[in-house]
Amino acid sequence: SPCRFCLYPGLHEDLVGTHPPGAHSLVAVSVGYFLEDFVDMLCNQKLHQSWELLFHHSVVIVCFGIAVLLHQYVGFALVALLVEVNSIFLHLRQILLMADLVHTTCYRLNSIVNLGTYVVFRIATLAWMTRWLFLNQQHVPLATYTVGTVGMAIMTPMNLILFYRLLRSDFFK
Question: I need a labelling partner for 42 at 20 to 30 A (CA). Which of 12, 50, 53, 169 fits?
Fold first, then answer.
């Protein structure tokens, strides 16, 4: 979290080898969550409904799995977890849709907060991560750099497309 950067200044300087206590466990638990959600979607949803999220989860599982196994890039994975702050509002949006509460103040307020947190925690975080990878290319082994770059090349367009869909659905009907 942003607070971690204040409490653990070494993280700001080294996202490869430095991480606060508990960070490795947090990333490992996150891998477990994404694995469980992946299996749940495979078992309980039609592939045409969930292929994008399955793809997203696959990328996260590989990238976070590398961080967990190597005990490196845990700081970078922590930054990536900032994206999940927005998931709270994406999930609430889905719940409100399922409850047929689209025409309520609660849905409208959530739509605004959802879009704001989307820009801050998804788009800005992914842009920062891409910039960090580019600026630190010489310090990152080729295989890891390739995985990170491919991951960002997949996640960024997926998130921009979802942002467009949210904007169109909630603000430009």
Answer: 169
Among the listed residues 56, 106, 46, 62, the one whose alpha carbon sits nearest the alpha carbon of residue 83: 56
Tens digits of per-residue pLDDT, 35-53? 999 999 999 999 888 888 8
The residue count of the chain comes to 173
Distances (CA, A) of 15 to 20, 31, 34, 71: 10, 18, 22, 11
Is residue 76 within 8 Å of 15, Cβ to Cβ? yes
Asked whether residue 3 carries a pLDDT value surpassing 60, the answer given is: no
Give how many domains the chain has, as a whole number.
1
Tokens found for residue 153: 């090349």
Residue 1 has pLDDT above 50, yes or no: no
Q: Which domain holds residue 83?
A: 24-171
Residue 18 covered by a domain: no
